[in-house]
Amino acid sequence: MQTPEKPLDILVVAAHPDDAEISVGGTIIRSVREGLQVGVLDLTTGEPTPYGTLERRAAETRAANEILGIAWRHNLGLPNRSLEANLEARRRVAEAFRITRPRLILTHYWDDLHPDHVAASQLTEAARFWAKLSRSDMAGAPFFPPMVLYYWSIHRRKHTDPRFVIDVSEVMEEKLKAIECYRSQVIDGRPDRFPTVLDDIRAIARYWGWTIGAAYGEPFAARDQLAIDGLGRVLSPSSP
Ligand SMILES: [Zn+2]
Question: What's the gap in Å between 133 CA and the centre of ligand 1?
């Protein structure tokens, strides 16, 4: 695993390549444009799938990386479809945290239909604690990631209750372009009539944008207490 040039500001932990783009692609692009160092840790290759191959998925990820503009991405190659929050996987994720040293981690919400997503969420929390352990033979130096935030995927079709929503209006089209790179997952073999997967992703983002008076938004949950650095930058939705 390559050490990033600088410690990361944000590390997105995702079970499968395309999860990061679908759930927080807008936040990633916006953060990169704001000068933050952003990385993605994919836990599995996502294969097998009906239209994917390992080579095709890797090429799709490379194309998406170009659009995201991220500083670092790595795939741990843990078992797809049978991802487990076991001790060996925890060690691998903790080593990634020690090597990339992110100020903020974004990962799957703890309740999800896909068992890999649930395992990824549990692994992130457990590895966050393990990453700070001293007197260990894990790679990298002890480090405790100060904050974890949780994002939603599109499997559970249920209204969620986020702690806050980030405005991604200005980068929504780039987010959709990054998702379109994963043709084997979101386009091939799927009906091309309305609503397509991309239509759904746009509509969900439009809904969350509406809740904050913006065109598009991405929602987040938190288990830790969140601090606000003054009230000057807290936005409110436009009046009814
Ligand atoms: Zn996934």
Answer: 29
